[in-house]
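Suppose you are handed a protein chain with no further information: no name, no annotation, nothing but its sequence. What can you learn? This example shows the usual starting point.
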Amino acid sequence: MPTIVLLHQAILRSPVPLPTRHHGWSETEYVRWLAEHADAEQYRLIEGVVAAYERDHDSEAADSSIVAVRTLLGRVE
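A reasonable first move is to predict its three-dimensional structure. Written in structure tokens, the prediction is:
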């Protein structure tokens, strides 16, 4: 299973918004963006969404579901 799919599943179980919501993209725009960008860029996009969420929600940064997302990101970097 592609790591990006695992990251999306982990995000869905967390309070972090999917990149579509964070960036105001439609699902079609996001799928197109994923198809046009390399894995490393996709992971950076997810990292940016998680980092933005953590900045805005300091007290929730230790949420176990966010830790799971960070763990997956750590394995691909």
